[in-house]
Design goal:
The complex is a heterotrimer of chains A (353), B (107) and C (168).
Chain A (H helix, E strand, L loop, with lengths): L5 H38 L15 H11 L10 H17 L11 E2 L2 E2 L9 H11 L1 H10 L3 H32 L4 H6 L17 H14 L11 H4 L9 H26 L18 H29 L5 H30 L1
Antiparallel strand pairs in A: 1-2
Helix pairs in contact in A: 1-2, 1-10, 1-11, 2-10, 3-5, 3-10, 5-6, 6-8, 6-12, 8-10, 8-12, 10-11
Chain B lengths: L8 E2 H21 L3 H26 L3 H31 L13
Helix pairs in contact in B: 1-2, 2-3
Chain C lengths: L1 H21 L3 H21 L3 H26 L8 H27 L1 H5 L2 E2 L9 H10 L3 H22 L4
Helix pairs in contact in C: 1-2, 2-3
The chains are: A mainly alpha (353), B mainly alpha (107), C mainly alpha (168).
């Protein structure tokens, strides 16, 4: 290796990390779609995609090729720049937030952390901020389409996301209070003492917060049972009625990338991130540094996968909310519950410390 | 990592930038005829002032300026909620957003 | 680093603000303001105010401006038409804004002696915990104003509900 300064090495490794994480996330998105189709099919007692490749494993590639090759239609009445900007915003925001997620134990190579792109002091706030910017993608797509169904869908979606963001943010306060930091690494390490027993959902007594987060996150990502913005039997396809080809695919990918982000955040905050559920009991078996680096990543992926499966299970089980039910559920049930959780948590912490 | 000479920006640069943003906000406030856009330019002016607060807070190594910005944000949020509600109810009665036509008090 | 950040994002903020001024459609103005706010958030970050940067993104661009865009979409506000009032406003607006800008920059430049000596260096890498500082200040010395703002927000919520409700 020739002489690289520290800074050049940092840049090189960072670019490499970004590329690898991006590819893995996009692959994850593609296969989450397949997972959803397969699981939903099993729930509804059918086969799901099974023709392309073994068990339909090549289906995502074929789907991607199909949406590339379709004609990209631009309706005449749309507001052109915003119409194109909207899907880019949606997908971009969905992908950026993965940048601050630590998906493995701290593993340093030449001072650069391998399993996290950016270790930010306020990682949790960064994720919340980027998620809240993602609303613009949906809002603008509906407005620029110049179509009443799109507009209705995006109005619904904007109102829904803004309302549930409150409950989402407040449900995380308990976790932050326990960890005393907004750094995602610190939050993870605050739960790694005794394995599953010290995870925030069990030993941390943030179970209520976890369920609030779960419901608010489903609403944030516009997934069933909160999928009113794209309710196909009321609004054609909601905000992406006018989109075709790659632009539609970008919205589609954004939805699944958001699911993955939400699952990552839930794993980090409530399920101990990349730490093993058995704590340090089996540490003796993992002598080599390579194994020590790889096992946490496996735990992380397994937890995220379990979350995605839960997402799909919920979609296959629950019927859609009515709009007024959705709003009153968010404002009158989740929000007060989240506040009560904050008060109780901080009270207990104050009594203890 | 990076040479330190590039690490320094005079405080005056930040203040000039804030002054530019603020005067653009004033121009927009005077020129625009749409209530919502006028409201938006008020937000721009608030942001310009916030920038000076943060720059000064950094210059004096004090957090008081940041605290002030925090309060400005809170008040701006409250103001936006009430203001937009007023705009909604004006639109309901007058069917227009043009400030020249909202002259109920004048006639 | 700091200078590069300042040039890029300061320029972006300026372009956004000018776009706000010259666009005729309210939604374009609102989106340009979002650009200004995001670039200001980056500047805050470079000035060591991490918490404010995050709050700027979450509160301003993520909540307040979404509300603006929502209302623009809801009222279906179109392009603003030119009226006699707008022509008078053009005559007053540009000179007035230019005068204020000249005044402000005159003050800053004449006070250069006090300002120029202090350069702003990057606290980017070895920042002290900004959130701890801000919250310590907020919950000790500024506790009363902090509590009063919560009352203010409550009042604002109630006022907004009362104002925006349809009359029976």
């Amino acid at each position: 290796m020739t002489h690289l300064t520290n800074f050049e090495l940092f840049l090189l490794l960072s670019a490499l990390k970004v590329a690898v994480v991006l590819v893995i996330t996009l692959l994850g998105v593609a296969y989450t779609v397949l997972l959803e189709r397969k699981l939903l099919a099993r729930i509804q007692n059918r086969w799901g995609p099974c023709r392309v490749g073994p068990f339909g494993l090549l289906q995502p590639l074929v789907d991607g090729a199909k949406s590339f090759l379709k004609e990209d239609m631009n309706p005449l009445a749309v507001e052109r720049p915003l119409f194109i900007l909207a899907p880019i915003l949606a997908l971009g925001c969905a992908l950026i937030s993965v940048a601050v997620v630590p998906f493995g134990a701290v593993t340093r190579v030449d001072g650069v952390d391998l399993f996290q792109i950016a270790n930010v002091n306020i990682g949790l706030l960064v994720i919340l901020g980027i998620t809240s910017i993602g609303v613009y993608g949906i809002a603008l797509s509906g407005w620029s389409s110049n179509n009443k169904y799109s507009l209705l869908g995006s109005l619904r979606s904007t109102a829904q996301v803004v309302s549930y963001e409150l409950a989402l943010g407040l449900s995380l306060v308990g976790v932050v209070l326990r960890a005393q930091s907004l750094n995602l690494r610190t939050i993870v390490s605050s739960q790694s003492a005794h394995g599953a027993l010290s995870w925030n959902i069990f030993g941390g007594f943030q179970t209520v917060a976890f369920f609030i987060y779960l419901m608010a996150a489903y609403a944030e990502t516009n997934r069933a049972p909160f999928d009113l913005p794209e309710a196909e039997n009321e609004l054609v396809a909601g905000y992406h009625t006018e989109y075709s080809s790659m632009k539609f695919a970008m919205f589609f990918m954004a939805e699944y990338a958001n699911m993955i982000t939400v699952s990552c955040v839930a794993t980090l905050l409530f399920l101990g991130g990349a730490s093993s559920p058995f704590g340090h009991i089996f540490d003796g078996f993992l002598r080599t540094p390579v194994l020590n680096a790889i096992f946490p990543v496996c735990w992380f992926v397994a937890k995220v996968f379990a979350f995605l499966a839960l997402y799909i299970w919920v979609r296959g089980t629950l019927p859609r909310f009515r709009y007024d039910q959705l709003m009153s559920f968010g404002w009158k049930f989740l929000l007060p519950l989240a506040m009560a959780n904050i008060i109780v948590t901080s009270f207990v912490l104050a009594m203890r410390g | 990592m990076v040479p330190t000479t590039y690490n320094l920006v005079p405080t005056a640069y930040y203040l000039i930038l804030a002054a530019m943003l603020f005067s653009i906000g004033i121009a927009a406030f005077l020129i625009k005829r749409n209530v919502i856009t006028i409201f938006i330019s008020i937000e721009l002016m608030l942001n310009a002032v916030n920038l000076t607060f943060v720059a000064f807070a950094h210059m004096w190594h004090q957090v008081s300026g940041q605290i002030f910005v925090f309060f400005v944000m809170v008040v701006a949020a409250a103001e936006a909620a009430v203001g937009l509600a007023i705009i909604l109810s004006i639109f309901r009665t007058r069917e227009t957003l043009n400030v020249d036509e909202i002259d109920l008090m004048k006639s | 680093m700091q200078l590069a950040l300042f040039i890029i994002f300061g320029g972006l903020a300026l372009v956004g603000a000018l776009n706000l001024l010259f666009q005729r459609h309210p939604i374009h103005s609102a989106l340009s303001l979002v650009v200004v706010m995001m670039s200001l958030a980056v500047l805050y970050w470079s000035l060591g105010a991490e918490f404010l940067a995050a709050a700027q993104v979450i509160v301003y661009s993520g909540a307040i401006m979404v509300l603006f865009v929502f209302v623009i979409m809801l009222l279906n506000a179109g392009k603003e038409e030119r009226t006699r009032g707008s022509r008078a406003a053009y005559a007053v607006g540009f000179p007035g804004a230019a005068a204020i800008f000249c005044l402000l920059s005159f003050v800053f430049l004449s006070e250069r002696g006090a300002l120029m000596t202090s350069n702003i260096g990057g606290d980017l890498s070895n920042a002290v915990d900004n959130i701890a500082q801000v919250s310590a200040m907020l919950f000790t010395r500024q506790l009363l104003p902090f509590e009063v703002t919560s009352v203010l927000i409550l009042v604002a919520i109630l006022g907004a509900v009362v104002l925006a409700r349809k009359e029976q």
